[in-house]
Amino acid sequence: MAKISKKRKAALEKVDAEKLYNLSDAMALIKDVNCTKFDSSVDIHCRLGVDPRKADQAIRGTVVLPNGTGKTKRVLVLCTPDKEAEAKEAGADYYGLEEYIQKIQNGWTDIDVIVATPNVMAQVGKVGRILGPRGLMPNPKTGTVTPNVGNAVKDVKGGKIEFRVDKFGITHNSIGRVSFTPEKLAENAKELLMTLIAMKPSSVKGAYVRSISVASTMSPGIKIDASSIA
Predict the structure, then answer these.
(1) Which of 44, 81, 105, 168 places its Cα 20 to 30 Å from the Cα of 186?
(2) Which tens digit of pLDDT belongs to each residue from 106-144?
(3) Is the per-residue pLDDT at 58 higher than 80?
């Protein structure tokens, strides 16, 4: 069995594994139990009472976190020449079409988000098998297939994140960094969680939000009381 470091042991002693913390206390505690020397990501995990196999319960969407994620995302806009100036002005890192389709076909995926205009989706489909497994395929449901590329780029750069339930009905998302204040982390968490709650399908019976936990990189998980969100 691997030996637990002194920092890890001290962190574990500060967290009551059986306790449900309110949102504010959890975000303060997550900073206190951080074990890393770098600016760790703070991730929140929410188990929903849904069956992802049913179309109306496969929860998926986007939300703009009020305080951003603490990470600058690299954005590629696939568009025709008439939209390139708009993409550039909005802050896109890359923009164009055929050149980048070719680069992706050759294995280049050094980007975080791809935005595309509807009129180029036929060409984007050529690299769907490469982009899909990496979560990079543009999708109208997440606002990444749109004629308004400028707004889409600004949203992504401003803290827009995508969420979706996995096969177990759980969402996993980063809501900031340990360097954020507890207040900013709580604001981001609440924005995401309230968005998830608002999307409750009418077909769901029983408890919708089953459990919520938050953790930074390599830190112990902290359970959150769902009733403290509203």
Answers:
(1) 168
(2) 999 999 999 999 999 999 999 999 999 998 999 998 899
(3) yes
The pTM of the full predicted model, rounded to 2 decimals, is 0.79
Contact 66, 195 (CB under 8 A): no
Say how far apart CA 53 and CA 118 lie, in whole Å. 28
- Which one, of 166, 176, 149, 173, lies nearest residue 91 by Cα? 149
- Any alpha helices (H) in 81-216, and if so which ranges? 84-90, 98-105, 121-124, 128-131, 149-157, 182-198
The size of the chain, in residues, is 230
DSSP letter at 10?
Answer: H
| Contact in structure between 19 and 225 (CB atoms under 8 Å) | no
CB within 8 Å of 128: residues ≥ 6 apart: 137
- Structure-token pair, residue 215: 């953790």
Eight-state DSSP code of residue 45: E
Residue 188: C-alpha distances to residues 2, 80, 174, 230 (Å): 35, 35, 9, 13
pLDDT digits (tens, 9 = 90+) for 143-176: 999 999 999 999 999 888 989 999 999 999 999 9
3-state DSSP assignment of residue 94: strand
3-state SS assignment for residue 170:
strand
Structure tokens at 205: 């019976």
Query: In whole angstroms, what is the distance from residue 187 CA to residue 203 CA?
Result: 29
